[in-house]
Amino acid sequence: MDVLELKGIERTYRTGAVEVKALRGVDLTVGEAEFLAIMGPSGSGKSTLMNILGCLDSPTAGQYLLNGQDVATLNRGQLARIRNETLGFVFQAFHLLPRTTASENVELPLLYRDEQLSWKEIRDRAREALGIVGLGDRLDHTPTELSGGQKQRVAIARALVTKPRVLLADEPTGNLDTRTSLEIIELIQRLNDEGLTILMVTHEPEIARFAERVVILRDGLIRSDRRRTPLRAADSLADWSEESEDAMDEALGDRMETETTPPLEVGR
Amino acid sequence: MKISAVPYVALKALRRNTMRTLLTALGIIIGVGAVITMVGLGQGAGAEVEEQVNRLGQNVILVFPGERQLGGVSIGGGSANTLTVEDAIALREEIPEVVAASPEVRSQRVLVYGNRNWATPVYGQSHDYLQIRDWPIEDGRMFTEEEVGRAALVTVIGQTVVQELFEGSDPIGETVRVRGLPLEVIGVLAPKGMSLMGSVQDDLAIVPYTTGFQRISGRSHAMVLNVQVYNEESMDIARAKITDLLRERHRLAPNQDNDFTIQTQEEVAQVATETSRVMTWLLASIASIALFVGGIGIMNVMLVSVTERTREVGLRLAVGAKGPDVLLQFLIEAVILCLLGGLGGILVGVVATEVIASYAGWPALFSVEAMVVAVGVSAAVGVFFGFYPAWKASRLDPIIALRRE
């Protein structure tokens, strides 16, 4: 069954007398466990599309079916519930709460659950999610004590903690260096292998190469929608670290320590 | 949303900015502290006033000459000459409820002892005056009815006079002179402290009214009749009987007004407590302005906080918080701030009241009600001033909020 189905989605912004059509009839169907990259230049409507997919914004026209349900029929509270239970968000700027530990940041979505989870269950699930992203030993670190890549891992754990069906990632590697980006993509690919549907907005073609399907938006319309065999981030990481390690070894002697990605521990 | 998570999230948010939390709560601490202090001091002063009224004596009725305004406006004076010594005797003998009656005359005179002198009010009273005032003798004795009858040259003096004239040596049996009259000191009164009006009650000399009227004051009529009634229940009856008897004795026609005024100790007390009650309210309203300003401080900080935490709100909305969840969070934050301030304020208020009361020399009174009200009011201040910022936060658009840098 299709997880997401967009039919003729339009979104028009009105600023005074000027009308801006950000989306002009987007049709898109995303199936179970797909990894889809959305690309396009600035102003192409990527962000607007992402907001609509994330139930943060409603289309001016068209139909959006999420798990077969027409989102237009839902009220604000029901939309909040979908964002909480069905969708997971990852942002370019991480959006972690300052002066708050990793595990408390991850607990956050569970606090807004309609079902009343016990505090123990909330703690356990936060710890489990941080384990999945390889930060099981950083539970009590605050964002200032974490590197950029670690912050994004906490953010991913926060998205995973509700066990969503779809992960929406808006430029997840935009604030990270190449190697850390590869690590994040490798994590996302592993989650995708586990059956999570992933939609990722990116403007970097190198990053989009890791998705099995790439959609290119231009002027509010889908201009290209292609599938191909994706690169594996794990392989690139292996190559990358060999090359750079040789270079680094020469420069720094044996002081270099490679940060390795821990193996996937928790089955989903 | 998980219910126990509401205070949890609010507390976390407050702890993330401890300094600001404390400074904001300070406004409420000062406000509530001021209210508690002012009310405590006002009530303490009221209690002090009440105690002083009780010190006037038990079941006392005062009869003043002339028609006077009620409400205790003119306590002094006594210009009209309508009350006589015989009136006092008649009250005591003809009204069964009256157990004591003392015709009073008062004049400021210089007392001379050796080479020292001291100006003090000299009172002419009957032998039962101290019983009316519930005033014990510390040393020596009060003059007797027999001494009153023969206008004996004796006096009972207050503590201040003892200090001023005798400088601590034993005055009993010594002779003081007033207008050339030699008066033997036969008793010393126990100290009584300040009166309602703030004068020192211990600065006086009491002589038999027979001596006091003609020979010391040069007056023929009483300034006040001090009357004591058998018990509290008899006060009203006694009052009516006194009125009837005095009207009869003064031969007043039914259409004539009374030529005297009757005031009970209770009425004096009412005036005094009313005054202190008004003062308490006045002080409390001044203090509540401080509380109000503290509340505005809370609103200000919450508004700043909402603006500053726009991205946080956006994130919360994105991960599934509903508008009411965010509203509740900010509201509870404001309420917790105010409650913190309220508790701190009670502490500050109690300490301040104790300190001030110990300097002022009257009891510090704390009512549990005042504290409950203070905490309740501070919670209400939190809701009232926290609502607008909280509502603003809950109305944020998550898309815009998340983009905010």
Core attributes:
heterodimer; A: alpha/beta; 4-stranded antiparallel beta sheet; 8 helices; globular; B: 405 residues; alpha+beta
Description:
The model of chain A is unreliable at 253-260 (pLDDT under 50). Chain A has helices spanning 46-53, 76-85, 102-111, 119-132, 148-160, 178-193, 205-208, 233-252; strands spanning 2-15, 18-31, 35-39, 61-66, 69-70, 87-90, 166-170, 197-201, 213-218, 221-227. Chain A starts with a strand and ends in a 16-residue tail after the last helix. Chain A has a domain at 2-86 and 164-252: P-loop containing nucleotide triphosphate hydrolases (Rossmann fold). The longest helix of chain A has 20 residues, at 233-252. In chain A, helix 6 runs antiparallel to helix 8 (233-252). In chain A, strands 6-7-8-3-9-10 form a six-stranded mixed sheet. A four-stranded antiparallel sheet of chain A has the order 2-1-4-5, with helices on one face. Helices cover 35% and strands 25% of the residues of chain A. Chain A contains eight helices and ten strands. Chain A is of the alpha/beta class and 268 residues long. The longest helix of chain B is centred in the last third of the chain and has 44 residues, at 265-308. Mean pLDDT of chain B is 86; it is low at 68-78. Chain B is 55% helix and 17% strand. A six-stranded mixed beta barrel of chain B has the order 2-3-8-5-7-6. Chain B has helices at 5-15, 18-54, 85-94, 129-133, 145-149, 159-166, 209-217, 235-249, 265-308, 310-318, 323-360, 368-394, 398-403, and strands spanning 60-65, 98-113, 116-125, 137-140, 154-157, 175-178, 181-189, 205-208, 224-229, 260-264. Chain B has 405 residues and is an alpha+beta fold. Chain B contains 13 helices and ten strands. Chain B folds into two domains: 5-52 and 271-403, no CATH class; 81-258, no CATH class. Chain B starts with a helix and ends with a helix. Classes of the chains: A alpha/beta (268), B alpha+beta (405). Chain A binds chain B through residues 51, 54, 56-57, 76-77, 80-81, 83-85, 89, 91, 93, 95, 97-100, 104, 108-114, 116-117, 119, 122, 158, 162, and chain B through 1-5, 8-9, 12, 16, 311-312, 314-323, 325, 398-399, 402.
